[in-house]
């Protein structure tokens, strides 16, 4: 059974702790087992690669490393970091995520 997390793939998030504190990016991958997420342009590490079929030259590559989910906060459409709540949508009778700061529904 997967745990309920406040962050989903495609969300816009802000880093609230760590080396990349204050930076914003889009979530590319969420690892529910490790409670980590890979965020576009955040926590970049240099990796040395051997030549292979994909990269015939090899060399040094910059890529994103996972960030723990506790260090991330969802950003609403106005650009504010906010907590996430869940409520029943009156029209569809489904649970939707909403911003606790502004009250707007987060897609």
Q: Count of DSSP helices?
A: 0
From the N-terminal CA to the C-terminal CA, the straight-line distance is: 23 Å
Structural class of the secondary elements?
A: mainly beta
Output the CATH topology of the domain at 12-76.
Answer: SH3 type barrels
The CATH class of the domain at 12-76, by name, is: Mainly Beta
Main features:
SH3 type barrels; elongated; 3-stranded antiparallel sheet; 107 residues; mainly beta
Overall description:
Strand 10 (95-99) and strand 11 (105-106) form a beta hairpin. This protein has strands at residues 12-15, 24-31, 36-39, 44-49, 59-64, 67-68, 72-75, 81-82, 84-88, 95-99, 105-106. The chain has a domain at 12-76: Roll (SH3 type barrels). The two termini are 23 Å apart. The strands form 3 sheets. Strands 6-3-2-1-7-8 form a 6-stranded antiparallel beta sheet, with no helix packed on it. It has a 3-stranded antiparallel beta sheet with strand order 9-10-11, with no helix packed on it. With 107 residues, the protein is mostly beta strands.
Short description:
The protein is mostly beta strands and 107 residues long. Helix content is 0%, strand content 45%.
What is the fold's blueprint, element by element?
Blueprint: E1 12-15, E2 24-31, E3 36-39, E4 44-49, E5 59-64, E6 67-68, E7 72-75, E8 81-82, E9 84-88, E10 95-99, E11 105-106
């Amino acid at each position: 059974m997967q745990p309920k997390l406040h962050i989903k793939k495609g969300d816009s998030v802000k880093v609230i702790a760590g080396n990349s504190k204050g930076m914003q990016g889009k979530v590319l991958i969420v690892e529910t087992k490790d409670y980590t997420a890979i965020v576009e342009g955040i926590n970049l590490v240099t990796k040395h690669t051997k030549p292979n079929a994909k990269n015939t030259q090899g060399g040094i590559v910059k890529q994103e490393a996972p960030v723990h989910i506790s260090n991330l906060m969802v950003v609403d459409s106005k650009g504010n970091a906010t907590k996430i709540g869940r409520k029943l949508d009156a029209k569809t009778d489904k649970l939707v995520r909403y911003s606790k700061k502004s009250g707007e529904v987060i897609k």
